[in-house]
Amino acid sequence: MSESKDKEIKTQPPEEFTGLKQKAPKETSVGKDAIFSALGQMNKYMKKGEALKLSLKINQKGGFDCPGCAWPDPDDERSKLGEYCENGIKAIAEERSKKTIGADFFAKHSVQELSELSDFELGKKGRLLEPLVLEEGATHYKPIKWEDAFQLIADELNKLPSPDEAIFYTSGRTSNEAAYLYQLFVRAYGTNNMPDCSNMCHESSGVGLSETVGIGKGSVTLEDIHQAEVLLIMGQNPGTNHPRMLSALEKCKVNGGQIITVNPLPEAGLMHYTDPQSPKRMLTNGIELTDLFLPVRINGDVAFLKALMFEILQMDIAQDGGLIDHDFIDEYTEGYEQFITAIRNIDYMACLRQCGLEAKQVRAAAKIIAKNEKIIVCWAMGLTQHENGVDNIKEVVNLLLMKGAIGKPGAGTCPVRGHSNVQGDRTMGIWEEPKPEFLDKLDEIHGIKAPRAHGYSVVPAINAMKEGKAKFFFAMGGNFLSATPDTEFTAKALQNCDLTVHVSTKPNRSHLIHGKKALILPCLGRTDKDIQNGKEQFVSCENSMGVVQSSKGALNPPSKELLSEVRIVAELAKATLKNSSINWNEFANDYDNIRDAVEQTIPGFEDYNKRVRQPAGFYLPNGARERKFNTDTGKAKFSTIPLPKHEQAEDEYIMMTIRSHDQYNTTIYGLDDRYRGIYNERRVVMMNEADMKAAGIQHKEVVNLSSEYNGVMRYANKFLAIPYPIPRGNVATYFPEANPLVPIDSFAAKSKTPASKRVRIRIHRANG
Length: 768
Ligand SMILES: Nc1nc2c(c(=O)[nH]1)N[C@H]1C(S)=C(S)[C@@H](COP(=O)(O)OP(=O)(O)OC[C@H]3O[C@@H](n4cnc5c(=O)[nH]c(N)nc54)[C@H](O)[C@@H]3O)O[C@H]1N2
Ligand SMILES: Nc1nc2c(c(=O)[nH]1)N[C@H]1C(S)=C(S)[C@@H](COP(=O)(O)OP(=O)(O)OC[C@H]3O[C@@H](n4cnc5c(=O)[nH]c(N)nc54)[C@H](O)[C@@H]3O)O[C@H]1N2
Ligand SMILES: [Mo]
What we know:
Blueprint (H helix, E strand, L loop, with lengths): L20 E2 L6 E2 H15 L2 H8 L30 H10 L4 E2 L1 H6 L2 H4 L4 H5 L3 E2 L3 E3 L7 E2 L2 H14 L6 E5 L5 H14 L13 H11 L8 H6 L2 E5 L3 H4 L3 H10 L3 E5 L5 H4 E3 L4 H6 L2 E2 L3 E3 L6 H18 L7 H7 E2 L1 H9 L3 H8 L3 H12 L4 E5 L1 H4 L4 H14 L9 E4 L6 H6 L8 H11 L11 H9 L5 E5 L3 H4 L3 H9 L3 E6 L12 E6 L7 E3 L2 E3 L1 E4 L4 E5 L13 H12 L7 H6 L1 H11 L6 H4 L6 E2 L16 E2 L15 E6 L4 E2 L2 E2 L9 E2 L4 E4 L1 H7 L5 E9 L2 E12 L6 E5 L24 E7 L3
Parallel strand pairs: 2-10, 3-4, 7-16, 8-9, 8-14, 9-12, 13-24, 14-15, 16-17, 17-18, 25-32, 29-31
Antiparallel strand pairs: 1-28, 5-6, 5-18, 10-11, 19-20, 21-22, 22-23, 25-33, 26-27, 29-32, 30-31, 30-33
Helix pairs in contact: 1-3, 7-27, 8-27, 9-21, 15-18, 15-19, 15-21, 24-26
Bound molecules: ligand MGD (2 copies) and molybdenum atom (MO).
């Protein structure tokens, strides 16, 4: 037993270096290095037979949906070699690690001791095997029976003065079936406090798109990407985060399309690609992807888009029209006059200054876009995680509407989603602001009285716990402490709770920063066989392009003690809601029954059980795809967006927090960021070489970081400064190590998405 009683639990990740090696950033992606890296991870962390079995089933029809990203699978033919990618393999190697941890591990190590470990070190301990409880005042987690765990939760929930003092978080791996049942339980219990990872992710896209084109999802299909004449890829690093997107980009290029990349960093994955599944490409050294690279300053996107649209307007005037789609604008949109007047009158030089690009670069982009009609804009966190995140999306929509590039083949919006079922969870009703029609249906079908008042999203949920307005925290997956902004602040919020509960597959830092009491409930993962009532079940997920597909685990679970998320919800509901008229057993015994309820509740799921059994699943309806814009006026809307205010003191840098190649959000697969040439270290701050020189900072010098926002100081110490091709005044660090610096009160207007891509920081020489 450890002597750790007097030591404090560490709320911040450990500030220790692991041995940085830096090489020049790579200029090409995937190829044989990716295969070696994936095989390396499988050999190191998985059992041999299991690795082979899984790699043949990943993203295959009738197989399981990769727990990695939400990029869609081809509707027709799937590669024989397995429709997988390096990072998909890492995701399953992580989930199916041969290591496991049970009660003996937790008896040996106190919570305090474990709090000295990083998420990387914790994750590598292995799969969780049995339910665990941390009693009030205890120093160690110990085993608890499932029924006692459910009773403990039920007692806490029934003790609360109001259901609105409970918070129910969801990460985006939860299946449609589990998500539907979960939200039904939470609403039957009596609250809409359902924050989810989407709040920190694509919420800005959801809000921006709903208000302008009437649907919070993207409008394109995979085939559209293949057919596009121009792909504008903004604030996204697909080589790392959506590797299978690269083969779609390759198809687009082979079909004659052009790619414009807008990113502060020259991400290797977007520059050059060698398809590991094509021997010919491996021999011929692959294909150039990006035709025009625009190294925009962090959050310079609105300024860039304005300058771009100004240029297109000038070109249209110069050639007497034909470049702007007035037929489309007249028939389908509103707000054009006001919008185009504002574009005509922009301060062009101010736009150039803010985006950091030269006029000739903007003009080069305008030339490509103006003369083409099939245009798709793809984006991810580089656009959404800003205070003006929603405006970023609306400005993207302006460009597409101006060109009539939506609701026709090869054109439209493509927000590339994160978690593999984050989009499906929202469709199933995981939302703090549910629509009244949806709640009416729940009431009618299930005989409940769902609450109408909106609940907390992530940032308000943290504030509520911090202020003592919420006392119970339940997480269906995820790593709330490490994923949210302002780590210290969030830690205090969680520690204010009476009970914190995590349904998890692997240990993480959220298990260690706990309420008075805490529970860890281990569950089945995507790769595990799920048998209920003697019958093998499957679940379903919705990908980034609105296709719903089935997913069935392939391996025996690592322990008999693990329950499916569906079963956990059902048991929890039975324990908590004593007079419930809902037959929770029926749902958990056969997931077809859940799908039948979904079909009755949510439009687009007609014949759900039948269609989900079709090999490639089915598409959900999408108004924007058909030029049916479901806004309040039935028209797509142009927006008039102000240029963002960029406050920044002389000695401040603008920091973005990004993912390395070896991580899945807070799950850290390894310590390398191969494409960026950064090896064996995550506590780095990437700086422009000239900035380092000006500040007298040496390569690999130890620096401390601080951020000051609304008069509050925040700190994260011990990072190594390294030179990197990034615009001057901008720096980059990895998430989650830099999250202590992201202010809790810096978030996007309307979507409340934390502004983790634009944090004002100062860099202090540790020995200077
Ligand atoms: N392997 C792997 N796959 C993943 C994930 C993972 O962690 N690992 N995470 C999943 C999840 S949940 C998500 S949301 C996605 C995330 O996918 P991404 O959004 O690609 O992930 P980030 O690393 O946050 O990268 C943001 C990119 O935007 C750029 N950027 C930052 N600020 C700006 C800006 O102001 N303007 C512009 N134009 N660009 C900017 C950065 O340089 C970087 O290339 O990936 C999903 N897939
Ligand atoms: N600074 C900064 N912060 C960010 C971001 C950023 O770019 N910068 N990105 C944000 C984004 S886009 C997102 S989506 C969030 C992610 O936030 P989360 O979704 O909360 O975090 P993850 O790291 O994906 O969660 C990992 C944990 O999920 C559990 N898990 C894995 N698989 C399963 C499963 O099948 N079932 C269950 N029940 N549990 C499982 C494991 O225990 C694992 O430790 O982080 C956000 N935070
Ligand atoms: Mo995300």
